[in-house]
Write a structure and sequence with these properties.
The chain is an alpha+beta fold. It has three domains: 69-358, Beta-galactosidase, Chain A, domain 5, CATH 2.70.98; 364-602, no CATH class; 606-636. The protein has helices at 3-23, 34-66, 70-85, 233-238, 335-340, 362-382, 386-400, 402-417, 419-428, 435-449, 458-476, 507-510, 517-535, 544-561, 566-589, 592-602, 611-635, and strands at 98-102, 106-111, 116-126, 132-136, 141-148, 154-156, 163-165, 172-178, 184-191, 197-205, 217-227, 241-246, 251-253, 260-264, 268-274, 278-297, 304-315, 324-332, 496-499, 514-516. The radius of gyration is 33 Å and the shape is elongated. The chain starts with a helix and ends with a helix.
């Protein structure tokens, strides 16, 4: 393997390492100020004091009730409720009833306390342990709207009991918060058949009688803990992130690697709480304002991955002439599905929900959406086995990049047959003091025979977008989730053949507690390919350290990909096998003696220097002149 080809491999290795680092969520410093922390602490202290007061009140009421003084207990409860909720005090107590509300794709459990969605179960999916897939539960989530009453009391709908109102439509569910016979607030949930989106509306009726008359917004608080759904926690945690989109602008996200929060004054169109393959998205018709978003990483021993929280404001017509309109999406993170919601919509008004699918940066995302995903979807229409689809995709990709592969091999072959002449130049200009002359003579040789020293490197760089696209595609492709192939039970996760318990420092963190078979096969084939390539390279004796590094790279890949999707390791395994076959096939068609003769024949042809080559030669001459002057000065 010639020096430039090795340089290409080393460059490719460091690009992959750099991409892996950049692909991780950023490690920015937590941006909350000390003042904000003080404020949060004050709020928490006030909340604790309120809880203590409530507990004390409950204890007093319980004491009176046990003593037979039921009238005193009822009076105490009624007084406390009246003081806290004012006109809404009659709605502060009741029985929390649950009702099932569903369509073909998901089942919602509705709670009368708060008039909210208590839990969501996706019907067509199960967890990595084959249990029902529940996105969130009532106990680990919040959903409520806060407002001030006409007598300046702060009330949260989460503390109040709603009444179910018959709608006459099995896909429409109405909860009513009836303050008086003429004043109420309705929460209206409407499903569609075979759709993961549902509409949500808030309709007021004479609420100006019980709410502050100048109130035109509701403070919305939505929070939940995302349960671990997949077998591999490492990558599920890495791909679990809070995304949000500015109105008519870009999609952004919080830091996924650590606890993070963000105060956003600009209006947001939607906020998404997602794990690796599923998302809960709140979409506001007129946008969310005064946004405070936060994400917290749960402990490794917790059954939950992340805790998400958003506090925002939405418009509200207190007199009821207009409804507050929102939508929610509870479903899989599938690119084609999320993209379909923007069909026929002007660009400025598009939701861009597909941007929550982590398919890489602009160039890499273009390769995924323009090449990989269309090919994947096309094969998926005719083939049900995703292992076979990956195999066919690998063959097509190798055919697409074969011209680059062939050019790279030809460049390597030309450099190899020229090695005796390059060695003569090295012998003619030995030592570091004649390095400039040696470099100039080598470049002249390359120019005379028509060989580009970057010929083996540039084709590899052209392949990088495809390589990185596949690197992003497999862990984020829900189509591969729980799809088996050969011994792999889930192509979106690792295929462990050996597992062990216990924590081994560094090993467990970066390698895991298992060995993935496809990753191991990928490593072995890369070592074989490295051996095949290195045997034909006459420069190995000059760079023994580089040779060792080339063999170390596949071993490092074993650590990098052992916890990755088995579908990705399978792709690289097959891709390397095909490369080995291509190498032998190309080698069989090339007569190196004829190739050398052709290169020597090129020397007889006049060589036209490019402007860059002329400037480079002039710079080398200037450098030689400077070195000679420095040597003269040293002799003096």
């Amino acid at each position: 393997m010639d020096k430039n080809t090795i340089l290409g491999f080393v460059l490719m290795f460091f690009i992959i390492i750099g991409f892996s680092y950049l692909n991780k969520p950023s490690q920015e410093q937590f941006d909350a100020t000390k003042e904000q922390k003080r404020l949060n602490d004050s709020i928490a202290l006030a909340s604790n004091l309120q809880k203590e007061a409530d507990l004390k009140s409950d204890s007093i009421a319980s004491f009176h009730a046990e003593s037979g003084d039921s009238a005193t207990a009822l009076t105490s409860d009624s007084t406390d409720s009246k003081m806290k909720f004012g006109a809404f005090s009659s709605l502060a107590s009741g029985e929390n009833t649950h009702t099932t509300f569903e369509n073909d794709l998901f089942e919602l459990t509705m709670s009368s306390k708060g008039g909210r969605i208590a839990s969501v179960r996706l019907k067509k999916f199960v967890t990595g342990d084959s249990l029902p897939l529940i996105l969130f539960e009532e106990e680990t989530s919040k959903f409520g709207f806060t407002f001030f009453t006409s007598d300046s009391r702060l009330v949260n709908t989460e503390d109040l009991y709603f009444k179910e109102i018959p709608s006459g439509n099995p896909l429409k569910f109405i909860y009513r918060l009836a303050v008086t016979d003429s004043s109420w607030m309705d929460f209206i949930y409407t499903l569609k058949k075979n759709d993961y989106k549902l509409s949500f509306e808030i309709k007021g009726k004479n609420m100006d009688q019980v709410m502050q008359s100048n109130n035109n917004i509701l403070d919305f608080n939505w929070a939940m803990k995302m349960r671990q759904q997949e077998k591999g926690r490492t990558f599920e945690e890495r791909y679990s992130v809070l995304n949000y989109k500015y109105v008519a602008d870009e999609v952004d996200k919080l830091n996924a690697a650590k606890d993070d929060n963000e105060k956003i004054a600009n209006t947001l169109k939607w906020v998404s709480f997602k794990d690796q393959f599923f998302a809960c998205i709140a979409i506001a018709d007129k946008g969310f304002t005064s946004n405070n978003l936060s994400s917290k990483v749960e402990e490794k021993t917790s059954p939950y991955i992340k805790s998400y929280d958003m506090t925002s404001s939405v418009d509200f017509d207190i007199r009821g002439s207009q409804n507050t309109k929102m939508e929610f999406y509870f479903g899989p993170i599938k690119h084609a599905l999320l993209k379909s919601y923007d069909k026929g919509i002007a660009k400025d008004n598009q939701l861009d929900l597909d941007k929550i699918v982590p398919l890489g940066g602009k160039i890499i995302r273009w390769a995924n959406t323009g090449i990989i995903l269309p090919m994947f979807d096309l094969f998926g229409k005719f083939i049900s086995n995703y292992g076979v689809i990956i195999l066919l995709m690998t063959l097509v990709i190798k055919l697409l990049i074969f011209p680059f592969t062939y050019k790279s091999y030809m460049s390597s072959a030309k450099m190899r047959v020229l090695q005796p002449q390059i060695q003569e130049i090295n012998d003619k200009f030995p030592g570091t003091e004649r390095a400039a002359e040696r470099s100039q003579a080598t470049m002249n040789l390359y120019r005379q025979v028509g060989v580009s020293p970057m010929g083996g490197c540039l084709p590899m760089l052209f392949q990088m977008p495809i390589l990185f696209a596949m690197y992003s595609f497999f862990p984020s492709s829900i189509e591969l989730r729980q799809q088996s192939f050969l011994w792999a039970h889930d192509l979106s996760s690792y295929d462990a053949i050996i597992t062990w318990s216990g924590n081994i420092p560094l090993v467990t963190k970066y390698f895991g507690n298992h060995i993935s078979l496809f990753c191991l096969l990928m490593t072995i084939t890369n070592i074989i390919y490295t051996n095949i390539s290195m045997k034909t390279q006459p420069t190995n004796n000059q760079m023994p350290g580089m040779k060792t590094m080339m063999y170390m790279m596949p071993v490092m890949f074993l650590f990098m990909f052992n916890q990755y999707a088995s579908g990705l390791s399978f792709y690289f395994f097959i891709s390397t096998l095909i490369t080995i076959i291509q190498t032998y096939a190309i080698r069989a068609t090339i007569n190196e003696d004829k190739l050398l003769a052709q290169l020597n024949e090129n020397k007889k042809k006049p060589v036209k220097k490019s402007g860059f080559a002329a400037r480079l030669e002039q710079a080398q001459k200037e450098q030689q002149k400077m070195l000679k002057e420095q040597q003269k000065n040293k002799r003096k």
